[in-house]
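INTERNAL AUDIT FORM
Audit reference: QA-55
Scope: verify that the stored structure record matches its stored sequence.
Auditor: D.O.
Record contents follow.
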Amino acid sequence: MTNVLIVYYSLTGNTKEVAETIAAKFDAFVEPIIDSQKRSGFFGYLRSGYEGMTGKRAMIKKPEKHPEQFDLVIVGTPVWAGGMASPVRSYLANHPPHPAKLAVFCTSGGPQNKKVLQEMVKLAGQSSVAGLGLSSTDLESAAFKDKVDEFVIQIKAGMVDLAA
């Protein structure tokens, strides 16, 4: 079977839940992005929104898994003030998944998913075999699992060796 790595950042647990659901479909390795910045409380919330909106990067812990050792890397982020989370931005800038294939997903409270997915792909410097944007409404309904299943089908269609 193909090696799959799922890398994500989650502050509230939503992005983690999606990452774990996708991982179960591929029997994938899962690695959270560890942020060195405190994000709790009012000021943490403001800092996160500012960084998401302005394209800032965060200091993150060096990942244990090396994306270049995998055939597919799936990267997930929450949406912060219309942009990707700064820890994910740092990860993609410093650990691009080359030569692995890339798939991306995001979770948000609003409609910015397409923009954030495009931003992730651009920062990674390569095309994506699939993209998934989930709103808070999706996460609270049965649509969540259906959309994850569609995402997995997209990935498998984009990677012949995963289709078996």
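Auditor finding: record pair retrieved intact. The longest strand covers residues 72-80.
Action required: none
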